């Protein structure tokens, strides 16, 4: 089911925006500099709701936007399938729904996880999806029209201590697709696949340790690197070869969020068994933690702007710290707790969704906390909203239990 509201127009510049992988084109969860998004909307009354599309099954993956289309993974427990959907960017209409795997869902996962938690990635020519299926991490490459190019098993994935499932998204760096497959087994690794053939270009061992973090690529001090936290350390790897550039022994064993950075520093938050937020130098020149605190952002990532970092903790409290020294600029309670989606920056405003289905909007200001709006958006949100076309694409669930129905909605100022 798609409900569309017509009569909206795009500028040529906004139509050029794409969001082709987890955390967007720069890996920082920032919208384009000239982008905007609505501050308020009402799902029940349709206020500022451009379209609303019913999604079969369940998933926690974010949508990606490539050309004129949106791609989104989901899993349907009733027929034990893991799928990739293709929707129109303009009106949300589902145009294709491709089955990737059938009958190979994991026996057990965490109740707060899904069978389709990794987001897809695209280089503009093909779409790459990664699933925990048949006790392995398997990547599939498809054309934008759904033709299968190749499928590759990256690693076995049979967690023994905790059967919580999988959540790391694949990321593209040039012609390589980088995939984390970390668990408490001998096959735990970080690997890069050739996007043309699926051949494993490099593979590095990771500790036998259950970890859920997505790697991310950036450049700090002129050095290209892939960053990954977890297993009681933060690592930087050469994206072309997999060579370890540096490591800092810090953080904790299990991390779900993605590393963030500013011009000089790298930050992460989690986790289990220890919990907190840690900041280190981004060139690996010191094995010392620059600062840390005990604020835990387990599943959700942090968000940086120049000189400052924002967090919404598991407790539902929002924070702003100065990255130079960790000084707390402000803190304020947003909600009672329960958060999986990561904050996203649009037009100097931060949007963050709670597991209870509310999206809060507050200013990205270090001076003081300034709540702009609170929007009821269904009954549960686990996926991070995506900003394109002066809209937000939001994956939400309406209803509870067997009556729960997922939707992908686009909100925009009408």
Automatic annotation (TrEMBL):
UniProt name for this protein: Similar to dehydrogenase
Listed transmembrane segments: none
Ranges for domain Pyrrolo-quinoline quinone repeat: 34-156, 169-331
Domain of life the protein comes from: Bacteria
Species of the source: Rhodopirellula baltica (strain DSM 10527 / NCIMB 13988 / SH1)
One of the Pfam families matching this protein, by short name: PQQ_2
InterPro entries: PQQ_b-propeller_rpt, PQQ_rpt_dom, Quinoprotein_ADH-like_sf, WD40/YVTN_repeat-like_dom_sf
